[in-house]
From TrEMBL:
Leader sequence residues: none
SUPFAM superfamilies: Ribokinase-like
Domain Carbohydrate kinase PfkB: 7-284
GO MF annotation terms: kinase activity
Organism: Streptomyces polygonati
Recorded superkingdom: Bacteria
InterPro entries per the UniProt record, alphabetical: Carboh/pur_kinase_PfkB_CS (IPR002173), PfkB_dom (IPR011611), Ribokinase-like (IPR029056)
UniProt-listed PROSITE patterns: PFKB_KINASES_2
This protein's UniProt keywords: Kinase, Transferase
Protein's UniProt name: Adenosine kinase
Amino acid sequence: MTAEIDVLVLGGAGVDTIVRVPELPVPFADSHMVPAIETRAGQTGDFVSLAVHALGLRTHHLDMIGDDHPGDLVRQLHRDRGIPLTEVPQPAGTKRAVNLVGPDGRRLSLYDTSRSRETDRLPPATVTALAEVSRHAHVSITHPCAFALPLLRAAGVTVSTDLHNWDGANPYHEAFAHQADLVFVSTTALADPERTMRRIAERGRASAVIATAGAEGAYLLLDGELTHIPAVPPPAPVVDSNGAGDAFAAGFLFGWLAGEPPLRCGLYGAVAGAHACTVLATSTDAIGRDELLARAARARPAAPARSPLDDDIQGERV
């Protein structure tokens, strides 16, 4: 069957309330005056959908959404950006979170766990029908998506996932880590990033594992070789790190689906992630294809801060 969708994004639709705070952590006090509080649609699946769509890939988003105002915001975002959305009713309501963002762009996210139920599922027939006309599926680590992974495998699409700030031990993430062809993970909570990356590759089916490390860049594990992907200097001041990891994944996927060499995919990810850090999350703007390619062509990777992984790397390749 001919592919009609380049990237099918599962899960991760929701609404964030962005609170810009004077500093993180927020000092204890009865109250604080903050520069801004704004609620907008856009969680990890939304951000990946927006980012790959902006890069010219045919995109479709599937998730559970409530019949409520936050759900209306999610639906409106997709309509405004021209991204098809298949929604499954979510009786508990649309997912929501509060993100505290400091002056340097760092963030602390607070997720409302009341917006999900153990019985939540994406309809198998819907997942299969969409997967059968898709080239690739990017799966958010939300509860219903875990049950969709075998269906995606049966449909024959390649699968990617982002484990975000996994600690390398929580068993919840293992189903996603071990059933995806491409695995993204942040080094933030990993005591030994290289060990975790190699364990993912050994126990699962991933052909590549990518660990993002903020200003240090990222690390790519491919065919047993660990390679550093240098960070790219942001084109403007860093104001917000919300969505930077999603942008990196989208940039990497853009290159991967085009058949580019893995390190070029990593460069695309670094450029897209750097751009995301210069954009307020309330605007949900992603870098476009032409701008990504132009910046990648002239990119001069920043000298990375020293990382514990550096001792294990035999040499950087750019």
